[in-house]
Amino acid sequence: MLKKKKIADFGQLLIPLVALAILIIFNLFRDLSFFSIGMKVNNSGNIVLTGNLISIIDSASELAIIAMGMTLVTAACGGQDISVGAVGAISGAVFVKVLQGMGNITVGTVILAFLLCCLATICFKLFNGTLVAVFKIQPMIATLILYSCGRSIAYWINGDATPQLNSPVISSLGMTIPGVPVPTPIFAVLFVGLLLFLAFKFTSLSLYTQSVGINKGAARLNGINPTLIQLLSFVLLGVCVAVAGVIGVCRLGQLNHKTLLVDIEMDAILAVAIGGNNLGGGKFKLSGSILGAYIIQMLTTTLYAMKVAPVNIKAYKAIVIIIIVVAGSPVVKSKVTALVNKIRTKRRASTIQKGVS
Amino acid sequence: MSGNNKNVHREPLTDAQLLMVISIGIFAAMYLGAMVTLGGGFLKAQQIFDLLNDNAALIIISCALTVVMIGGGINISVGGVIGLTVMSCALFLNNCTIGSDFVTILLTFLLALGIGLAFGLLQGFLVSYLEIQPFIVTLAGMFLARGLTTILSVNPVKVTHAGFLALSKTKLKISWLGYVAQNGNLIPAKIEIGAIVAVAVVLIMWMVLRYLKLGRNIYALGGNRQSALMLGINVKKTCFSSYVISGVLSGLAGFVFLMHKPAGNASVAMRSEMDAIAASIIGGTLLTGGVGNVIGSFFGAMILATIQKIIALSPLNASWWQEMANGAMLGFFIMLQSVVLSARAKRRGKLEANQQGHPKKE
Lengths: 357, 362
Known about the structure:
The complex is a heterodimer of chains A (about 350) and B (about 350).
Chain A: H1 2-30, E1 38-41, E2 47-50, H2 52-59, H3 61-77, H4 84-102, H5 107-133, H6 139-158, H7 168-174, H8 184-201, H9 205-214, H10 216-221, H11 226-252, H12 264-274, H13 286-305, H14 313-328, H15 330-356
Antiparallel strand pairs in A: 1-2
Helix pairs in contact in A: 1-13, 2-13, 3-8, 3-9, 3-11, 3-12, 3-13, 4-5, 4-6, 4-11, 5-6, 5-11, 7-11, 9-11, 12-13
Chain B: H1 15-37, H2 45-54, H3 56-70, H4 78-95, H5 101-129, H6 134-152, E1 157-158, H7 162-169, E2 171-180, E3 186-192, H8 193-211, H9 213-223, H10 225-230, H11 235-260, E4 263-264, H12 272-282, H13 294-313, H14 319-356
Antiparallel strand pairs in B: 1-4, 2-3
């Protein structure tokens, strides 16, 4: 019984794992040097790890962090937040504004700026969350408001098109800390992932979120406050977005409100779906979404390595996405299971016949 | 939502009709307000035709989205399909050497519809027969369309086909709605072919949704899939049809877009799918399905267009003000819808409870 449950839990991750494996095998056959990892001295004199794998894990950081938050919102509210990119731009704008207002950039001011960022994004996400949880508006519609005007707010906060931030603290946050060869954003993913994992492992939050997502009314009758749970999922997403926005700004050392985290909402929803989570809410797996984020980034990097022009990548990406979702679709799954069962019974019948004869 | 009975005039307005009436009222109020405060162009009949001319493609894709949303789905690939259609039609027009002008334009038109149809068929099949979430399918569709557009050409392509340029400049002129310019010449009101097509699409889709079996099936499907299935409706086919309709309409919108601006560009109609969703919502379509009306979406698109025009004419002319105004407007409508619908639901609950003779506890 227990074993069966474990297999069912694992089944959700089967498609993304197979997709990842196929991508890896494809790259193995295409070019072995794709996987080579080397050490290199970068511009600021630090020794850093280089290689495609490192760059995949590094540049998928923002996506992975937002995908985690998106999974929670999807699970609790049964819909997706499409304003994460725009709110991420606001987060970056607040970060830059605070740091510029303070004058000097030290570890202390960066932490303060980050906390203010979190506050700002949580406020915006609470606005979305209130529309969803209290006014009962579908999440996609409720977040369409900030999707359409969030980047304008980001512009409005700063007034300047591309403010720069030049400081060793910023570059060590966005790239690598001197002495540590691993890019810092990877640690951010680990940190956020670990926090969420612990929070959901050792509290009933996971159960509450799933029950609210599956049936709000039933959850309420069982003593769970659905409004609170949905608001909480938006708050957690807000924190994720703040982290992603700050990483995005630190990575480039400048803020461009038009390109910071652009189109990340679509990739994040995609990561959630590739991870095998139901976009209609309910059961969820954070690990699936993280895996989905890395699959998307791996695909992009593979296409870059194959010399596909950056503007054309979307078309190839779309084809791979369609293949993955078709493989994961319930109809195909049930057909495949039926086929497997048929073969199995035939084989069993033939072995029984052999035994009789 | 059974607002289609003959005794509809005796019943109070249905939710969808109420939301539509609100959006029409706000459009009228906004337009009158602009007439009073801004004057100028808004006092001329040409202004309303300009709104139609400039936003014909948006109106058509709003209809496309409304149909899908009534059926309980979503289609965010419409903007991408417009981009792809515009680019491929522009290239086709510039490179086609067979036949006369008429044949070439006809072939281009068929190409536009064909691209839309292909996307509609593919997405409809994936959504309805393989039961994949529509958001993901159409997101992939959007990526595919945008990617194919840039594969066709990264650089802008200007249409040089003389016949098509003549067609795109053809305008219906109505002299009695015109105005007298400062030099004393009468300038007639001009309507582009695209605007006429858009209005025709709205009317046709309204008839289809209201009077055809397919339209009623789409409402039934969006209202409650399970009951629709039990009523003997072929839900998969209905869902499939709704995506095919929206695909073909997006292709048509692409052709209309090309007639309005005869040049292909990789960034054509970028993010217009979100404008179309906003227009549908403002017009009273619910994303949950089963409720909506293309006439409402038409006015939703016109409201967005009017905001754009007002901001362009007012001293706040900057793109971020326009986006913020759009966002604020959308927020206002969403809140209004939520409040109105929940108030009505409460009142209806009370009424039913009173009729049954035992008041509800909640």
